[in-house]
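=== Discrete structure encoding ===
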Amino acid sequence: MEFMEAATRRRSIRRYEAKSVDDEQLAYLLSAARWAPSAHNRQPWRFTVLRSRAAKEKLADAMGAKLKIDRTRDGDAPTVIAADMQRSRARIAEAPLVLIVTMTLVDMDLYKDEARREAERIMAIQSTAMAVQNVLLAATSIGLGACWMSAPLFCSDVVKDTLGLPEDWEPQALITVGMPANEGKVAERKSIELLVRNFD
């Protein structure tokens, strides 16, 4: 599959067929992530693979409990919260494969001033996002569907504790992967003219 075909065919797939992602497919996705560009070539991304139903349910339930606390504090209706919890749980627990995306700053440069420390952190985040994009496009290129979800940002400690992640691994996102149960919606794109400013 050509690059532009993969880029334009990629969709956020949230429902999958009951078919597992095999070892060869998983290796292909992780290899694609490994070749993403990164600041200083430090490759700050780290992935945790969840395949068993029990592991996915454990994570989904823990994240759901945190969601309930936060949304209750926000004053949302219990029925709305329950529906969102159920939907989020299903998306994680029923996906054939879940990749937890984390980043580490251990190999990034250290600076004394806060401004450059923050810039270095942002570079690590950007680098990790590039690895995520590689995974999404690689999945599309071999006929798999995937969905990037940033929910771990709202409950990073819960994700770390539930999965026993190393202290320096900071949860950034999760990616569900599987054989698409549907084609997904075609999202409207803004025009190039709206997105680009020429400065000659």
Residues 14-181 form a domain with the NADH Oxidase fold (CATH 3.40.109.10). The mean pLDDT is 96. The longest strand covers residues 170-178. The chain has one domain: 14-181.
